[in-house]
């Protein structure tokens, strides 16, 4: 095996190890952060929606409660928005399938995001009127994770290619010098033998 091939194999093994390590760290940390953000997003929305529906829920106006839930839900940032009365009767329940677009399906299976549920009590004058639960949609979190993976792979691949080109150039020059030295040695041996 030539010196270039040996160096290329070594650099490639090192590249794969660095790529796997960086992806593991980046995805692990980003996934935790994004799940926390999804949870905070759901909690804030549940709290806001709980305040919005307090008056209609106390008046028994289920249409206004459902309309309020629809205003939040129809933006597409949530997989579930549920409002139930104090007795447990569901007044509004809107659900969206957790389909993620713009990201390969194998990636969503490999990197699981479990968005936490935001919960809030609906109260009026210290009386519990019901409960609100909200679950954020992970679409944008998956898109962000996928972008991170693409950037890491492209930047490390570019660096790896530059390293291979540098090694090739360096070792070709070194090989040419060795060949020149061998020719000089052969000429010198031929001269001294004569």
Give the topology, please.
Elements: H1 3-52, H2 54-58, H3 62-73, E1 78-85, E2 90-95, H4 105-110, E3 117-124, E4 127-136, H5 139-193
Antiparallel strand pairs: 1-2, 1-4, 3-4
Helix pairs in contact: 1-5
Describe it.
With 194 residues, the chain is α+β, with helices and mostly antiparallel strands. It has a domain at 39-148: Beta-Lactamase. Helix content is 66%, strand content 16%. The chain contains five helices and four strands; from the N terminus they run αααββαββα. A four-stranded antiparallel β-sheet has the order 2-1-4-3. Strand 1 and strand 2 form a beta hairpin. Helix 1 (3-52) runs antiparallel to helix 5.
Q: Roughly what percent helix?
A: 55-70%
Distance between the termini: 36 Å
Largest sheet: 4 strands, antiparallel
Query: CATH first level of one domain: which class?
Result: Alpha Beta
Order of helices and strands: HHHEEHEEH
Alpha-carbon Rg, integer: 31 Å
Secondary structure: number of strands = 4
Structural class: alpha+beta
């Amino acid at each position: 095996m030539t010196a270039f091939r040996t160096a290329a194999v070594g650099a490639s093994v090192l590249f794969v190890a660095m790529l796997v390590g960086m992806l593991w760290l980046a995805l692990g940390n980003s996934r935790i952060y994004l799940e926390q953000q999804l949870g905070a997003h759901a909690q804030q929305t549940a709290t806001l929606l709980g305040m919005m529906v307090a008056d209609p829920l106390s008046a028994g106006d289920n249409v206004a409660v459902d309309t309020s839930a629809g205003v939040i839900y129809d933006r597409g940032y949530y997989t579930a928005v549920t409002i139930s009365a104090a007795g447990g009767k569901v007044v509004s329940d809107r659900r969206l399938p957790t389909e993620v677009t713009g990201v390969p399906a194998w990636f969503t299976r490999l990197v699981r995001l479990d968005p936490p549920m935001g919960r809030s009590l609906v109260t009026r004058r210290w009386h519990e009127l019901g409960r609100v639960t909200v679950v954020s949609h992970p679409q944008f979190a998956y898109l962000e994770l996928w972008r991170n993976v693409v950037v890491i792979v492209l930047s490390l691949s570019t660096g790896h290619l530059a390293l291979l080109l540098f090694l090739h150039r360096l070792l070709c020059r070194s090989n040419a010098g060795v060949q020149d030295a061998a020719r000089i040695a052969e000429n010198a041996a031929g001269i001294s033998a004569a």
